[in-house]
Every structure is written in structure tokens, then in C-alpha cells.
Write a structure and sequence with these properties.
The protein has 293 residues and is α/β, with parallel strands linked by helices. It has 10 helices and 7 strands. The protein has one domain (3-174, 201-239). It is globular. The mean pLDDT is 96.
Length: 293
């Protein structure tokens, strides 16, 4: 069984027409380094021409990651497959300080869609920055270097990888966050749902499945992006489209679920985190459970 993870690192988009989180270069690099402890999978990372050499130096030279395990592909975001509809409805001035880039969000599906001749059995998208102390408590962070310890987690390993594939089985894996008690995101217009339901919000940080299923899922995403955006005359995050697809096609998916992003050691004003996490399943519990299957 061969597994491929697809991701991207674009760290310099804040203040540009694309938008993106500010000062994330180290975060993305060290988080991806943590994800690479799933050594029985290969990784492909899309990036910009300007960042390529720094990434090669970091992973190949500083940390001896083999090039056949982590491949970098340069992609100009201006050439994205959705540029016409994104540019039609994007507020370019607002987007400069928006922390989410529509081009990256939508291209996740195109980048991840495997070529027919590839010999991978399972393909997953995974956000490069997924491993960090905001989502994972100190008990699962395990590096003596103070900065690296914010990102280095023992939850990403080959046991987790094997369990992820086993859970996915012959479906398409999605991760869903409870969206009623712990409201996170407004869904797309209810008219697009066969039976409207906003109780679960699909996240875009990790999803995928058997190679043969990707073409159908990408086709669903493409059709829904264009239909929903054109009808509503506005752009939506990829997660809103993914949530719509889930509710209209539930039999197609396996769903890992959680209630709250936060863990018990987070410090949020006005919230008793111990009580909150007793009542609500934290995101990192999904990773713990995959380590126990």
C-alpha cells in the first residue's frame, strides 16, 4: 500500500492580492517536518519560485529529508484553475489582509487529484501547518528546542498513518467539526442543500482517500464552486463548499468528528478550558484515537 500526502507552503502572501497569514514561514516548515514522521508516506509540496531554495535548504540540507520522500513543485498562483471566477468576485483590497487565500483553498483539490499512472493507493491533502501547540497540548509536543517544540508532535507517526488508511477504507475521508454548540462557520445559502443542516462543518486541513475516488470528488467540488458562487455572487471558503458536498452526498464519505479546536492547556479569556474540554471533544483527540486503533 502506497500513500501520498499533498500540501503547500506559501509564506509570503500577506499584503498581496492573494492574502494569507502573516509570519508563518517557520511555523509551516517545522510543522511539515513533524508531519514527515509519517515516514511510510511520500509528500508533495507546492510552493512559489521565491521560496523554493529556502525550502530545499531547510528540508534537504538542514534536516536530511530524502528528495524522493518530499518533492517540491513550483506553482504560480496567478495561473490557478479558478482564476476567472475568483477574480470576478474577489475584493482585492480586502484580500490583502485576509488570512485565507482563495486560490490555495480551491487548488487543494486540483493539486491533490492523482494522475492515473501514479501507483499510489491512497492520496490525502494535509495542511502543512497542522501540527502546532494551538491544536495540540504539551503532553504531545516533544522537542527540547523551545521554538521547534511548538510544532513537533509525537501524534504524527506511522501508526497514525496506518489507522487513517484503515478508517478511510473504501470511502472518502473528511473531518467534521460540531457547529451548533461551538459555532464556527456560517454555511452557504440553504437553497443549495437537499436538506439543510448546519450542525457539522467540514474542515479543509485533512481529507482524501483511494486514488480512484478523487476524480469524482474534484468534479463535485468544481461544479459546486461555480454553481454556488455564481448564484450567490460571492466567494466562499473551500470548507463551506466541502460542507455542502458532504450533506448532499453523505453516503460517499467516512467522517472523523470533533467539537472544539481548543485543548485543555489553552488559555482563552473567560473560558474554563478544563470544563470546556470535558464537555467537548478537542481536535487533537482525533489524532490520539488514530494512534490507538
Amino acid at each position: 500500500m502506497k500513500v501520498k500526502f499533498v500540501t503547500c507552503i506559501y509564506s509570503n502572501l500577506y499584503g498581496t492580492e492573494f492574502g494569507g497569514r502573516i509570519q508563518r514561514d517557520g511555523h509551516y516548515k517545522f510543522s511539515l517536518l513533524s508531519l514527515l514522521k509519517m515516514t511510510e508516506a511520500d509528500f508533495v509540496c507546492y510552493t512559489s519560485e521565491s521560496e523554493l531554495e529556502g525550502l530545499r535548504q531547510f528540508f534537504y540540507t538542514s534536516f536530511d529529508i530524502p528528495e524522493n520522500r518530499l518533492k517540491f513543485i513550483v506553482f504560480n498562483l496567478k495561473e490557478n484553475n479558478f482564476r476567472e471566477i475568483i477574480n470576478k468576485y474577489k475584493n482585492f483590497e480586502f484580500q490583502k489582509t485576509n488570512d485565507r487565500c482563495y486560490e490555495i483553498q480551491y487548488m487543494k483539490f486540483i493539486w491533490s487529484s492523482p494522475l492515473k499512472e501514479e501507483d499510489y493507493d491512497y492520496v490525502y491533502w494535509i495542511d502543512a501547518g497542522l501540527s502546532h501547540s494551538g491544536l495540540i497540548p504539551p503532553k504531545h509536543l516533544s522537542h527540547p528546542d523551545v521554538y521547534r517544540n511548538y510544532f513537533e508532535s509525537n501524534l504524527f507517526n506511522n501508526k497514525m498513518l496506518s489507522s487513517l488508511v484503515k478508517f478511510t477504507d473504501d470511502k472518502f475521508l473528511l473531518i467534521g467539526k460540531e457547529n451548533s454548540r461551538n459555532y464556527w462557520a456560517r454555511p452557504v445559502n440553504a437553497k443549495h442543500y437537499q436538506n439543510f443542516n448546519s450542525s457539522i462543518h467540514i474542515i479543509g486541513g485533512l481529507f482524501g482517500g483511494k486514488k480512484e475516488l478523487w476524480e469524482y470528488y474534484v468534479d463535485l467540488f468544481n461544479k459546486n464552486v461555480h454553481t454556488v458562487i455564481e448564484e450567490d455572487k460571492k466567494l466562499y471558503d473551500e470548507e463551506n463548499i466541502m460542507t455542502l458536498i458532504y450533506w448532499n452526498n453523505q453516503d460517499y464519505f467516512r467522517l472523523l468528528q470533533f467539537d472544539t479546536w481548543w485543548h485543555e492547556k489553552e488559555n482563552l479569556p473567560g473560558i474554563d478550558m478544563l470544563e470546556h474540554t470535558k464537555m467537548n471533544k478537542s481536535f487533537y483527540k482525533i489524532l490520539e484515537e488514530l494512534n490507538e486503533i
